[in-house]
Specification:
34% of the residues lie in helices and 18% in strands. The chain has one domain: HAD superfamily/HAD-like (Rossmann fold, 3-Layer(aba) Sandwich). A hairpin with a 4-residue loop joins strand 2 and strand 3. It has 197 residues and is an alpha/beta fold.
Length: 197
């Protein structure tokens, strides 16, 4: 019988690349173009550290910008290519990528729906686990939002929140009963926590 693998699931925006302030809309969000996508420092170093410890590294990301008509599928593919190239420059790569393009209140009909893949639901993580033969109890979900932590917890993973605790976030986490195992300022510090577990 094939041995199950362990994995670290990563949210994309705010973990691998910078979030973008879209001035014309007054919002912090995912990049909408390849030009806006900028890989954060030490991400490649973090991914390589996790891989050396025997973890598969898999992206699990909501990308509702497609449902909201913020970008096209072609623009999304260009962002993916830029991310892959940026990681390659840091001599790193991910094992797989899973994206949910749906949103219940989108404007593009084909992507406007309530689905089982959109975080906080654990659908993408469970699909990845099945397709890559992953033991979720030995795996981690790392993200910069409460929905990442909820999805990881629901799937049976340990979790790390990227960011610094702010009082409003503390309250939201208490209200939602969300408790990550750790909080780290960036992906590299999160990778160091995992390798010491």
């Amino acid at each position: 019988m094939k041995m199950k693998q362990k994995a670290v699931f990563l949210d994309r925006d705010g973990v691998i690349n910078e979030v973008v302030y879209h001035q014309e809309m007054g919002i912090l969000d995912s990049p909408f173009t390849a030009d806006q996508l900028k890989i954060l420092p030490d991400v490649g170093k973090a991914i390589n550290l996790l891989r050396k410890q025997g973890y598969k590294v898999i992206i699990i990301s909501n990308q509702p910008g497609l449902a909201k008509a913020h970008f096209t599928l072609d623009a999304f593919k260009k962002m993916q290519q830029k991310m892959t190239a940026g990681l390659k420059k840091q001599k790193a790569f991910v094992d797989a990528e899973y994206y949910c393009f749906h949103h219940p209140y989108g404007t593009v009909a084909s992507y406007t729906k309530t689905c089982t893949c959109r975080k906080p639901k654990p659908g993408m993580i469970r699909t990845a686990a099945k397709e890559h033969h992953i033991d979720l109890s030995q795996s981690w979900m790392i993200g910069d939002g409460i929905t990442d932590i909820q999805a990881g917890y629901s799937a049976g993973c340990k979790t790390i929140l990227i960011g610094r605790m702010k009082c409003d976030l503390c309250r939201r986490m208490d209200d939602e009963d969300v408790k990550p195992e750790h909080i780290a300022p960036n992906l590299y510090k999160a990778a160091l926590i995992i390798t010491k577990e």
